[in-house]
Amino acid sequence: MKYTFPLAAVVALVLFSWVGASIPGMQYIFGIVVPYLAMGLFLGGFCYRVIGWARSPVPFKIPTTCGQGFSLPWIKYDKLEAPLTTSQVIARMFLEVVLFRSLWRNTKATVYKGPKLTYESSKWLWLFAMLFHYSFLVIILRHMRLFLNPVPAVISNIEFFDGILQIGAPTMYLTEVTILLGLFLLLGRRFFNRHVRYISLANDFFPLYLIIAIVLTGILMRFFLRSGVDIIAIKRLAVGLVTFHPTIIADIGSIFYIHVFLVSALLVYFPFSKLMHMGGVFLSPTRNMANDTRMRRHINPWNDPNIKPHSYAAYEDEFRKDMVEQGIPVEKPLTAEESAAAEE
Amino acid sequence: MYDGGKIIPGLIIFVLFITFPVWYNRGNAGAVPQPELPKKFKECVLPYADMRAEHMQLLNRWRDQVLRTGDWGFDVKIGDTMYQKSLMNTCMQCHTSKKKFCDRCHTYASVKPYCWDCHIAPVE
Questions:
Q1: Which residues contact B55 (CB under 8 A, 6 or more apart)?
Q2: C-beta separation of A259 from A217 below 8 A
């Protein structure tokens, strides 16, 4: 169920846009209205989620440390795993965002003969994630050639290096291969790794299926279902969208509308799903806080300012009589008068 | 997180980044390229729309046929004339200017076919 339901959802999206975009006149809906709506929902939803997180209090200082924290100056501490200063936190965040450093620590429990239990770091997840995310980034940057006019040299250079193998015409891009590899490995991991399969849900499979469908329709459009894929007309539409004068100047093949519809679906799905880890990684208190609880007091923003700190000394003053009565040891004995009063 | 001083600027940078094409083009979509069509001829190898979308695949097929099977055949019929499977001897006979024809579209779409590293474009 959790494997097939999301697949059926993606197939339904494909069929819907395929049939929809073949109806005369509907091209304006699928080529213009849907992308605008999707982009609006993406940006609005993204900001809504981030602002929601920004407004949530962090009651405790909760950085996850995985190394020696700072204690005494002559004890060496781990600057990345238990960062003390802001610059160390920034370095830790940078490595996390850019190199997915915490996936390097993806430990896997294995039982060997003996029985001996080991927790070894399994680097595969890190490798698949790097392959997928960086291919996706390059693909998005490459697509900018369709949105920017004139095309800046950076974008042409990315395209050049991506197509450096010069296989066929239109040239094959390296990232087409690496993103599919990354995606199928990430999907395969969810199917074949028993532990991961057990904890995977429909909403883990859906984005994978959806992105695979986007990549496949893109590849089909570029190499196999080329008829009607007039890049000049497509670029006119894309540039039109970002300059707010969209026009569709030719009959573009349905595969293009399917591709665009799936991308729109991804944009809409993005802010309301686990894909928000793109913004969330920056706002994780477990990553973006310094491990300095012993140097700086973290004030819980929830604290009611009317509730004043109550020290033990004050507490004992308040309850000393009852404490003595109950036989609880006290630091400061009752005064003579108080004990006289208590006697009665 | 109550850290608006950092989160809000970060969010603004993100939104500006995502909407970069809007700022870059500044409302100017630019002209659709108008490749200069041959005046003496009426037809191309394939119908017009197919030529626009699929000419690179046609060239790729020709290249493979010529170089892999040695099939140089003069079997491309356009109108009443037979043409060879060739980039220079066919396409560039009718489309005599690379700059005014191929390049106009290619610059717009940011494609730089590497064919001209070896094949010689008509002298202009």
A1: B46
A2: yes
Q: Are the beta carbons of A230 and B52 separated by less than 8 Å?
A: yes
Contact: B14, A46; criterion CB under 8 Å: yes
Q: How far apart are CA A253 and CA A48, in angstroms?
A: 36
Task: Give residue-wise pLDDT tens across range B82-119.
Answer: 888 999 889 998 999 999 999 999 999 999 999 999 99
Record the pTM.
0.91
Q: Are A298 and A61 in contact (CB under 8 A)?
A: yes
- Is the CB of residue A30 less than 8 Å from the CB of residue A17? yes
Query: Looking at the partner chain, which of B18, B54, B113 has a beta carbon nearest the beta carbon of A227?
Result: B54
Is the separation of the CB atoms in A227 and B52 below 8 Å? no
- For residues A58 and A60, what is the distance between their CA atoms, to the nearest angstrom? 6
Task: Write the DSSP assignment of chain B as a string of letters.
Answer: ---HHHHHHHHHHHHHHHTHHHHHHTT---PPP-----SS----SS-HHHHHHHHHHHHHHHHHHHHHH------EEETTEEE-S-IIIIIHHHS--IIIIIHHHHHHHT---GGGGTSPPPP-
Report the residue of chain B nearest A60, measured CA to CA.
Answer: B1
CA distance A266 to A271: 9
Q: How do the domains of chain A map onto residue ranges?
A: 4-288, 312-343
pLDDT, tens only, A118-129: 888 888 899 999
Q: Residue A232: which of B8, B105, B113 has the nearest Cβ?
A: B105
Residues A328 and A314 sit within 8 Å (Cβ to Cβ): no
Q: Is the reported ipTM for this assembly greater than 0.85?
A: yes
Low-confidence ranges of chain A (pLDDT < 70): 342-344
Q: Determine the residue among A164, A226, A251, A289 to mutate to test chain B binding: the one whose Cβ has the most chain B Cβ atoms within 10 Å.
A: A226
Determine the Cα–Cα distance for residues A47 and A279; give it in Å rounded to an integer.
9
Instruction: Give dist(CA A152, CA A35) in Å, integer.
Output: 24
Q: Does domain A4-288 have CATH number 1.20.950.20?
A: yes
Q: How close, in Å, is residue A309 to chain B by CA atoms?
A: 23
Within 8 A of B9 by CB-CB distance, chain A residues are: none
pLDDT value of residue A241: 95
- The CA distance from A175 to A173, in Å, is 5
Pairing outcome for strands B81-83 and B76-78: antiparallel
In this prediction, residue B12 carries a pLDDT of: 96
A15: contact with B, CB 8 A cutoff? no
Question: Is any Cβ of chain B less than 8 angstroms from the Cβ of A314?
Answer: no
